[in-house]
Amino acid sequence: MPGDVWDAEGRLPLSSRAVLLVPVAVALVIQVPAAIAVAVWAHPPWPIGLLGVIVALASSLALLAAPRLPGPTVVVVALLTFAAVFIPPGYGPPFIPLIFAIVSGVVRGARQWALGAVGAAWVAAVIVGTMTGLDWHPYRIAFVTLLLVACFLIGEAFRSRIERARRARARLAARRRTTEQAERTRMARELHDVLAHSLSQISVQSGMALHLFDKEPERAREALESIRALSGAGLDEVRGVLGFLRGDEDAPVSAEPQLADIPELANSRSGLGLVVSVDPLPDGPRPSRPVQAAAYRIAHEALANVVRHSGGTTAVVRLERAGDLLVLTVDDDGTGIPEDRRPGAGMSAMRAQAELVGGTVEFASRPGGGARVVATLPWDGAE
């Protein structure tokens, strides 16, 4: 809407009462006393002097409608200005309400109204003045024309600045929405990782406990203790994520996992017929911490998929350095990846983890049976 215009800083609408009254007050303070002074100084008949004051007052008050009706306001003020030109003595200060009406109309999107009304009124004034014998110097006509053009240019400058500010606000809002969506996605991925890890391990350990309950009660007891520890750790991690979402500064925060944690992850995945081994990186430099965390989470999710879906008995995690890349490979001897299988939450989570550091993940079935996950990550992470 033409009346819905914001200032260049994007803080205050021009339709607010305080800003609305500024041009009206300025026009009243300048135009009405000037009309009174001209009437007193030129000594026209009192009805004509009063008419000049009324025209000045009406044109100033007409600016009150500018925020909602900028186009009709320009038309009304242009007509009153046209009338003021022919009210004796026919001279006085610049008609301030017309200046405000032009600038306001252009800024509020009523450019065509302003051009048509002001242009028609000025051309008509020149023609009628010439026909009625008014002695207007060409310099006066040129000066008024330049003044009107300057008003339009000022309005265009303000409008351009407001539009730039509006586009900047729109870009900022879009970036904010993108950031919020990315944060929601990240938190959803964190919850998925926490719950998938804990629940899959609880499922494995509970199955082991049931399997060994009668034959080996001590090992069954160990499995139940492991379940208790896993459920407690999982609850703590979920509380930490939910506390972060609530903005709780006292929420527990887990340390970022690193490559050194992968052997422990492999040990926790082993059991109930599945053996997980790790070929770690040789001693030496390590990738950046975000890359290590991403590699751990990808291995975490890949092994969770092995436990849940593959039915395999062995899995191998390999870590290699290839130039400026860290290559993580997870192989298993399970059923492999069906060709018609759509990417699930686990695959999407692995891809998202790799993309965070500028890497990629590929999934394939192994020729000898089983599945292979290959994550290629920049050694130092994304720039």
Describe the protein in words:
The chain is an alpha+beta fold and 383 residues long. It has helices at residues 17-42, 46-61, 70-85, 96-107, 111-131, 138-212, 217-246, 262-269, 289-310, 345-356; strands spanning 275-279, 314-322, 325-332, 360-365, 371-378. Among the domains are: 17-136; 257-383, Heat Shock Protein 90 (2-Layer Sandwich). The protein has a 5-stranded mixed beta sheet. A hairpin with a 2-residue loop joins strand 2 (314-322) and strand 3. The radius of gyration is 39 Å and the shape is rod-shaped.
CATH H level of the domain at 257-383: which superfamily? Histidine kinase-like ATPase, C-terminal domain
Tell me the series of helices and strands, N- to C-terminal: HHHHHHHHEHEEHEE
Number of strands: 5
What overall geometry do the principal axes of the alpha carbons give? Answer: rod-shaped
CATH class of the domain at 257-383: Alpha Beta
Which structural class fits the helix and strand makeup? Answer: alpha+beta
Per DSSP, the total helix count is 10
Rounded mean pLDDT score: 79
Stretches where pLDDT is under 50 for at least 5 consecutive residues are 1-15
Summary keywords:
383 residues, alpha+beta, Heat Shock Protein 90
Detail the topology: elements first, then pairings:
Blueprint: H1 17-42, H2 46-61, H3 70-85, H4 96-107, H5 111-131, H6 138-212, H7 217-246, H8 262-269, E1 275-279, H9 289-310, E2 314-322, E3 325-332, H10 345-356, E4 360-365, E5 371-378
Parallel strand pairs: 1-2
Antiparallel strand pairs: 2-3, 3-5, 4-5
Helix pairs in contact: 1-2, 2-3, 3-4, 3-5, 4-5, 4-6, 5-6, 6-7, 6-9, 8-9, 9-10
